[in-house]
Amino acid sequence: SARPLLEIYSASGLLLASVPSGQLVQLGWTASEDLLCIQEDGTVLIYNLFCEFKRHFSMGNEVLQNHVLEAKVFHTEYGTGVAILTGAHRFSLTTNIDDLKLRRMPEVPGLQKPPSCWAVLSQDRVTIVLLAVGQDLYLLDNTSCSVVTPPGMSPSAGTYLQMAVSFNYRCLALFTDTGYIWMGLATLKEKLCEFNSSVRSPPKQMVWCMRPRSRQRAVVVAWDRQLMVVGNSTDGECRFVLDEDSYLVPELDGVRILSRTSHEFLHEIPEASQEIFKIASMAPGALLLEAQKEYEKESQKADEYLREIKDQKLLPEAVSQCIEAAGYEHEPDTQKSLLRAASFGKCFIDKFPPESFVRMCQDLRVLNAIRDYQIGIPLTFTQYPPWDAVPWAPWQGLVLRRLYPLAIRICEYLRLSEIQGVSRILAHWACYKVQQKDKSDEEVAHAINQKLGDTPGISYSEIAARAYDCGRTELAIKLLEYEPRSGEQVPLLLKMKRSKLALSKAIESGDTDLVNRGTFFMTLQNQPVALSLYRQFCKHQERETLKDLYNQDDNHQELGNFHVHSSYSEKRIEGRVGALQNALDEYYKAKNEFAAKATEDQIKLLRLQRHLQEDFDKPYLDLSLHDTVSNLILDGHHKRAEQLYREFKIPDKRYWWLKISALANRGDWEEMEKFSKSKKSPIGYLPFVEISVKHHNRYEAKKYAPRVTPEQRV
After folding, report:
1. Which of 316, 320, 581, 689 has the fewest CB atoms within 10 Å, counting from its CB?
2. InterPro entries, alphabetically (predicted)?
3. Which domains, from first to last, does the chain contain?
């Protein structure tokens, strides 16, 4: 059969690109508009908006062995994350795909089938999983699995079929097989409202629809071609019939409804718009809008409306209402009508500050430009960031779509500084240009230099590094010719193994440090024995130089070892974990799965030891796993010891030896007897006898003697 086709469309339905694809379990978008394709074996493929493959990563060996049953893509303050439910009914997740740290969530006791529904929550900077099995809800955090009960949940509610978490992770909705909908806080500490939908069939989707800072909260439930909106207002429910199968996408301030032929946006009407446009409204903004319309008709009613507003001293409020309402409108004609009304009202106010009006005109002009169907970025005013925002500026979505001229025109219109706007766009364009293989190195280098020239904020070395990463070494060298800073040229040339050129550039610069570095590395590269001896010297005397050597050779294995060694010199736990995380990344690049897994376990152990130290006010940091578990048992914290046994998959025999030794040292013979009866001992019962005798307790030894196998008896 033919392979499935992966197609990417703009929000207005224009086809951007397509590519043949394998079987996928889930699709999702990152915050930077990359497409994540999650496969059954746990491999996550990353494509840009034009279906060009960027990279891939794996969700780990356990997912590979047990396959992916379900997956979800989620967003937190850490970045874009991926959560996986495996065929073994275990959850694994990463909170940031750009800084991959895989977490295996605790096991749900007795779970033999997939949960009926589950969701990812983010609370107090911790990512957790909420899942439903029948009429029970379980919460999985970093260390434990706990049963939770929503407050005010009806005892006859039934089995959970669907759950939804709000865009900001503050609210949770649950749908049961009796048609009952519970809405409350995601902390499960407060119920907001409940509703009986009288529909028992499982919904295809359930999502939240709410505005930031609004008291109105609503949930949209979708069946085949029917939508139901229920909320905490007294209006009950609204039902909509859809013409075709649709898909819901929850956003910051509403829900997008996508079908094969349409794209609609369902949202709460902002208060300013309600005040102006509701029937028979006497709000100041509504009166000012009518006054302006009558003025255009040259009617005396305009004066009557204005006098009514001015008598109540509400003219500034009327102008502000019209400006605010204009921002929430999508139709340019309605926007213009409201802005004309605001401009009309301003004429009758002394010293009205013009900034809000000017800013709204600018913002709407930009929004209307990017909302055009040929561009296809239908941002709402609430989603639109400030034009001088640093993390995400309005032009970035255009750059991702390679609409560089429009992005530059918007920056110039908004009068952004070159470094903040145009320079960054040109740098993006140049990095895209070096990936084009249909033109020669000379043509690409010349075109980039012609366009960029000496634009402030442009780093030719960064563009050259991108060209080198794309396998175009000669192009990278040509681009470095335009880099005015020799300190940026020489390291990249050395990395490209162009030592002679690096030395000549260093000599041209007149910088003695660069010359010495270039000469030295050039000599060493031709002398393997000398290079080996120099590395040995650096290991003891110049650790940072050693790191540079490994970086230059792309020696990820040794870089990983370097970061592990560095972690021991860190005094703060955060610094140590950071160094180990760097080591983990390098081991993954080196494809050393054993070292990566060992490092990952060490990071997990350090974090758990820090929590233990905080909880019990005893030193646990830097103990081995064996000593940590032993100390927990000695201190009587058996549940915590069991948790480590499960988390780190300590072999049964080793754990039983460790536990009975610690219990005997503690003198807790009652707990030891209880432990011996918990299940069949994987080490037999002779060790129980021996340890009891060793501690001079023949009475306890006699308890276990009958259970020793005949061949072990003397």
Report:
1. 316
2. VPS16 (IPR016534), Vps16_C (IPR006925), Vps16_C_sf (IPR038132), Vps16_N (IPR006926)
3. 5-223 (2.130.10.10), 271-399 (no CATH), 627-712 (no CATH)
